[in-house]
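Sample pair:
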Amino acid sequence: MESSAGYVYIIGAGPGDPELLTLKAERVLHEVDVILYDNLVSDELIEQFDALKIYTGKRKDKHHFEQDAINEEIVFHAREGRKVARLKGGDPFVFGRGGEEIAFLRKHGVAYEIIPGITAAHGASAYTEIPLTIRHISSSVAFCTGHPLDKIHVPDADTIVYYMVASSASEVAKALIKKGKEEKTRVAIVQNATRYNQKIFAGTLGELKNKDKKVVSPALIILGENIKEFIEEYWFEKKKKVLIAGDGAGKYESGEYVVVRYPCNESHSTEREGMLKTVDDPVAETMLLFPDKYAVRYFFNYLAGNNVDVRDFVNTVFCPAGIAASAELLKHGVLPDLCFDAVTASDIVMEITELGITGESILVPCPGSVDEQFVNELAALNNSVTLLDVSVHDTLGEAERIDLDFIDEIYFSSPSCVRSFSALYREIPENIVVMTADARTEEEYTTLFER
């Protein structure tokens, strides 16, 4: 068998609510170098981590890996000596193909471990108040797939949960009735279980078979008399859904609200957009200045996501600030040309001044907000300073769109968050309450949305 210096974690991300990630999974995801994640892992969850992120699922206009390619990609990064996380929705061993992936890892001698996640059935049960087992009603549970329709299993269990119901609900109901289930059998369909846009239909198979409605993925169907425990105002439904654009989640009590995060790259300047650029001509840059390790990490994410080769910067001086940034650069196989001891913006400028660095074209990868004073002080030394936007959205692509039909309130924490939001949403429904952090944010909101 082939040996590997790397290590692989097969991790369950849970059914959708980012807070249902286990403590162990969260710790490991902060430690790994690469995360390969699928379509059922939300942007809100994946954006918390700084590793190189590789999307392996299937979305419109996004690259899609077949399972064999995913297996090869995992092994490739492990052989490079990296810590790799394969992050999958739900639990990797419940219809998650985790077994196939560890078989491939065994074959290639790659060390690994499995971190379980909350599977969709458990999440849906808890977030709808439909118990999978309940005394005198259900003492057995079976998990099945809902396709293909002509081969649906109907095991002898009090409660049956059907995963991956991607066809029309009526056709699934008809298939189950054809297999012997009575039309009076109680049924519940749960779409987007545990997420802010969770939706439920509860009734009977007979009612469902005549309901011309597609089941939106991700969704599952629960069958059994335990459905009679379902109530319209279950605990999750009672909570208001508030969309936080930027910071401000602490303003809302978790007992009353479900917080939906809309990540914004906040800045202190309305001129930020004009200060950013893409790498059109790497040769034109004489110095790459990395203020911290995150600038290094996001810079290489940016290169991978935009098909830019680091070797194109052959005449560029790589300058990390601090030991952590230097170590991060070495992880990517690049030896620093000039290392700054300083770690704060003002100290970096002081060190550059002492070294007499002037008249240079300096490119600063910027994974977050802009420090205007830092930029101005570098420019005051007669340097041409350009910020390269390498924020997480450049790696992940367009932000996951929020279904505003499920939102009760929106909170904007800054003018830049209003602008970011307006780029995707031209209007906000009248029934949504809008709150802003201050007068400037309110003015920006009024200007852009004219409410």
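The longest strand covers residues 7-12.
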